[in-house]
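Dear H.,

Thanks for agreeing to be a second pair of eyes. The structure we're designing against is below in token form, covering all 329 positions.
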């Protein structure tokens, strides 16, 4: 029986957990199905964890993990934002199912005051909430609108309350059919930071992007299905240094006729071996910090608009791209 590889490299993306296993074992994980599709500038990767053994190896619960990846997301123009919003809506709708009259609670996890962690609250501010309208007009259903409520519960450091406890209380009172939780994540590669959106039907642990995991928001704890949407907005310093060293070694190997064997030897070091060495070097200086790009403010604003638009299109039957672009504040 295979055992999970205890990798120290920090990632919240299922596709990267799979890549790490492949690099270590030189083979695919049994019980994991992968499908990839390219649509214009966006690569969609669908990873399905099918059994408990595969879940143990990957360190991810059984379920579906879909990533939308495009380097252009960091500087997305209006057309790309519209394109990704529609793709996100399509994938989200597939996970939600063909329920026309749905009640959903959108949860924006994170800290308003820390920009890389503010994705969730910013998304919530752009979601078209309607539960109060349903109550005011005493409606049970509407052909054009879903019954949507939203909350940004803050972080335990400012509320003193476990996020899972807050959400559980709201779920017990609001009784949604589904919870959609949005949070910042962490990636193992700088190239994926702010360039990847992951959707999964397995829930999420609040604070995971900043390495501060709390009680999971999932169906087991909340009693309703939980879809998680996340974007890696940070990478730890050791991972960034590891990637930089790898690129430098590759460049020197191509350009130098001398010392080629030495560079090849360095190339043969496994990523987790290099990562462990770098962390060991950085440890005395307390330098293994989380790193985010300098234009994070603008990027998070754009990504929050894309995700909110995707949620609005996916959940509200009568709302399309033309409508959501009017609802920006």
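And this is the sequence the design step returned. I haven't edited it by hand at all.
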């Amino acid at each position: 029986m295979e055992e999970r590889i205890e990798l120290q490299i920090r990632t919240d993306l299922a596709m990267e957990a799979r890549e790490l296993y492949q690099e270590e074992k030189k083979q695919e994980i049994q019980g994991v199905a992968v499908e990839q599709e390219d649509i214009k500038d966006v690569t969609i990767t669908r990873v399905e964890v099918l059994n408990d053994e595969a879940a143990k190896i990957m360190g991810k619960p059984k379920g579906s993990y879909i990533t939308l990846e495009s380097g252009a997301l960091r500087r997305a123009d209006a057309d790309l934002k519209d394109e990704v919003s529609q793709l996100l809506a399509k994938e989200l709708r597939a996970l939600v199912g063909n329920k026309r009259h749905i009640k959903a609670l959108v949860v924006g996890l994170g800290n308003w005051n820390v920009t890389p962690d503010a994705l969730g609250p910013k998304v919530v501010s752009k979601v078209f909430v309607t539960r109060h309208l349903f109550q005011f007009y005493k409606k049970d259903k509407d052909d054009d609108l879903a019954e949507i409520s939203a909350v940004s519960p803050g972080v335990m450091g400012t509320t003193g309350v476990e996020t899972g406890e807050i959400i559980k209380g709201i779920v017990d009172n609001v009784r949604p059919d589904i919870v959609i939780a949005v949070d910042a994540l962490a990636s193992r590669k700088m190239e994926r930071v702010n360039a990847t959106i992951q959707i999964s039907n397995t829930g999420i642990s609040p604070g995971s992007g900043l390495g501060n995991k709390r009680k999971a928001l999932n169906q087991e704890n909340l009693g309703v299905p939980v879809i998680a949407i996340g974007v890696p907005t940070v990478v730890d310093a050791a991972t960034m240094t590891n990637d930089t060293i790898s690129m430098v070694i590759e460049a020197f190997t191509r350009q130098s006729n001398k010392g080629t064997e030495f560079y090849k030897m360095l190339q043969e070091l496994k990523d987790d071996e290099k990562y462990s060495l770098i962390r060991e070097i950085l440890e005395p200086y307390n330098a293994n910090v989380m790193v985010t790009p300098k234009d994070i403010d603008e990027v998070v604003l754009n990504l929050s608009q894309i995700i909110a638009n995707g949620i609005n299109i996916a959940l509200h039957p009568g709302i399309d791209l033309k409508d959501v672009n009017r609802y920006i504040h």
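Two observations from my side: The longest strand covers residues 226-236. Residues 1-7 have pLDDT under 50 and may be disordered.

Warmly,
E.
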